[in-house]
Design brief:
Layout lengths: L2 H18 L9 H8 L2 E6 L5 H9 L16 E7 L7 E4 L2 E6 L2 H16 L10 E7 L5 E5 L15 H13 L4 E8 L8 H9 L6 E6 L11 H4 L11 E2 L5 H5 L4 H14 L12 H41 L7 H24 L6 H16 L3 H4 L2 H12 L9 H13 L2 H25 L7 H35 L3 H15 L5 H7 L3 H41 L2 H8 L3 H7 L4 H27 L4
Parallel strand pairs: 1-6, 1-7, 2-5, 7-8, 8-9
Antiparallel strand pairs: 2-6, 3-4, 3-5
Length: 618
């Protein structure tokens, strides 16, 4: 194989691989950019200009649908791959990757059927391309794109927008700077009215990308010829015009072999009095070689940019492969090790959230610094220590025997009743921290890139973590309630020891026992009791405001940092190999993505090596 064939064949393989791997067209990633950086040939012409016949002549096979009106209703991306002499010809469709067609009549039928699947049995068009590869020793390495024929009017069954729709579709291909335009014009029509030339002049005004092809030379009126066009006098292009003689309708009806048709085409030009002097630069075989030679020069000029894009693609793929991780081992010991490593990766991120390396842990401090104090301030102590309630509680505590000095039982009941209110904020603090920890577990699982491959393991870790957090919450609730109950079970003695002195200081300046008795049942007496209880409750509130966070952090946050997955580790160690495999059952989409990345990586590395091996040759 020559250097030229190697280069073009390489480009063809890259384009084919990009197509198979879903990197064709329109994207903004490096893979789509690579496709667009590779040259291809778009076949453009009006309806019935002979486009299909030109393609079949280049391929040497009769494989395209025929008929009147609009026949090509979807772009056909045709990739020709030259094979060894004597090898069998066959075709493959992208949408039928495991099926080889050796009967090209079936290729024609599949093109028609696949078109109908997208557009229905109507005259509608679709921009979604059909991808077809043909492997043959009788072709040159080329990528050709057959586009719907340009038309001037809509026919019955077509929307009024069909003219503009077709032109827009064709432009989307030929406007790309790396697209070579094969402009097909029939010789029996005035070149000035050629749809293909008109469009190519607009998108390629310099003519550097345009190859003019003149068909139907044998159908011109007697006494006329197309020399003015073929020799560049009527319309000059940067590249020479090529004349083509396609099979006649009679030949098509008789199923004349394309090899025979090529021979008859050569004979026509060789014996033609008008075109004999151009015979060696006419015909479909010459056109294929001309295009192949041009593509080789284009590829050589673009090798640096193509190599750069390939290197960029390789870097992106290697990065993604690192991100996706290695395939899962089948050995139970290796699987257990993988699971433990994944758990440690999750645990590390979870701790980073708690310790401040990642956001989220500060919300726990917010519970203690904002939520708990606010809840304590909202407790209904004003209602509990109202004058009416204090009088009622103290009186009920005294029973039939009024208190002598300080109403100790009344004080105790008022304090115990008030302390019960602290249960709510204490439990709410536990629940709030529990919610934050659960949210951090969820975020940490999502941020553990290695876990994204294993949805089953993600769910198991989430369930085990939440189960552990529930245990920590229950322990924490018991602890904070104990703190509240401890305050109720033993009141601070110094508080009570101050009370008689306060009564004597404020209640009986004259030393009259009768006035003391009367004072104990006045409004001022009950207000003083309520004030004393309020002072005690405030003291307890300040204490709990400090001790509840300590208990919550000790029972929940500390435990979560130290032993969140301990129970899970114990369970994992008891699992059988089959159960471990189930935990490492990857997301099928990720497995497919890894396989695609591996294929792409292999392709691009191979392409880079091949380019390095042939780019220096001249």
């Amino acid at each position: 194989m020559t250097t030229m064939e190697s280069l073009i064949g390489l480009v063809n393989r890259i384009q084919r691989a990009c197509t198979v791997l879903g990197d064709y067209g329109g994207g903004d990633n490096a893979f789509s950019s690579l496709w667009e950086a590779l040259p291809s040939v778009a076949v453009v012409g009006g309806q019935s200009s002979g486009k299909s016949s030109v393609l079949e002549s280049i391929v040497g096979r009769d494989f395209l649908p025929r008929g009147s009106g609009i026949v090509t209703r979807r772009p056909l991306v045709l990739q020709l791959h030259k094979t060894e002499e004597g090898s069998q010809e066959y075709a493959e469709f992208l949408h039928l990757p495991k099926r080889r067609f050796t009967d090209f009549a079936l290729v024609r039928k599949e093109i028609q059927d696949e078109t109908d699947r997208m557009t229905g049995k109507t005259k509608q068009i679709s921009p979604v391309p059909i991808h077809l590869s043909i492997y043959s020793p009788n072709v040159v390495n080329l990528t050709l794109i057959d586009l719907p024929g340009l038309t001037k009017v809509a026919v019955e069954g077509q929307p009024e927008s069909i003219v503009q729709d077709i032109e827009t579709m064709v432009r989307s291909y030929v406007e790309k700077p790396n697209c070579v335009i094969l402009a097909i014009s029939p010789a029996n029509q005035d070149i000035a009215t050629s749809d293909a030339i008109k469009l190519s002049r607009e998108v390629d005004p310099s003519g550097e990308r345009t190859f003019g092809v003149l068909t139907k030379l044998d159908l011109m009126d007697k006494g006329t010829n197309a020399l003015d066009v073929l020799e560049g006098r009527s319309y000059r292009l940067q590249h020479p015009w090529v004349g083509i003689v396609n099979r006649s309708q009679a030949d098509i009806n008789k199923n004349v072999d394309m090899i025979v048709a090529r021979r008859k085409e050569r004979e026509y030009f060789a014996t033609s009095p008008d075109y004999g002097h151009l015979a060696n630069k006419m015909g479909s075989e010459y056109l294929a070689k001309l295009l192949s030679k041009h593509l080789e020069s284009v590829i050589r000029a673009r090798i640096p940019s193509i190599t750069s894009l390939i290197n960029k693609s390789i870097e992106e793929l290697e990065s993604e492969m690192d991100h996706l991780g290695r395939p899962v081992a089948v050995d139970a010991g290796a699987q257990l090790y993988t699971i433990l490593e994944l758990c440690r990766a999750f645990d590390r991120i979870f701790k980073e959230h708690l310790d401040g390396g990642r956001p989220g842990g500060d919300r726990i401090y917010g519970v203690f610094d904002n939520q708990l104090p606010a809840a304590l301030r909202k407790l209904p102590f004003d209602r509990h220590l109202s004058l009416q309630n204090v009088r009622r509680v103290v009186s009920e505590a005294d029973g039939y025997q009024p208190h002598l000095i300080a109403p100790e039982q009344g004080y105790r009941r008022l304090i115990e009743g008030a302390l019960n209110y602290f249960r709510g904020p204490a439990e709410a603090s536990v629940d709030a921290v529990h919610f934050v920890l659960k949210e951090l577990v969820r975020k940490s699982i999502g941020e553990t890139q290695e876990l994204k491959r294993f949805p089953t393991l993600q769910a198991e870790i989430a369930a085990a973590s939440n189960e552990a957090l529930e245990r920590f919450r229950e322990d924490s609730k018991k602890t904070v309630i104990r703190l509240v109950d401890m305050e109720s079970s033993y009141l601070t003695v110094e508080f009570f020891r101050r009370l008689p002195q306060e009564v004597e200081k404020g209640g009986n300046p004259a030393g009259n026992p009768a006035s003391v008795t009367v004072d104990r049942y006045t409004e001022g007496h009950f207000r003083r009791i309520g004030s004393n209880v309020s002072s005690y409750i405030n003291m307890v509130s300040e204490t709990l405001k400090n001790t509840i966070p300590k208990a919550v952090v000790y029972c929940q946050v500390r435990e979560a940092k130290q032993s969140l997955l301990n129970h899970f580790y114990t369970q994992i160690g008891r699992k059988e190999a089959k159960q471990l495999s189930q935990l490492l059952d990857e997301d099928p989409a990720l497995m497919e993505r890894r396989q695609q990345c591996a294929k792409r990586l292999e392709l691009y590395k191979s392409a880079r090596d091949e380019i390095d091996s042939v780019s220096w040759a001249r």
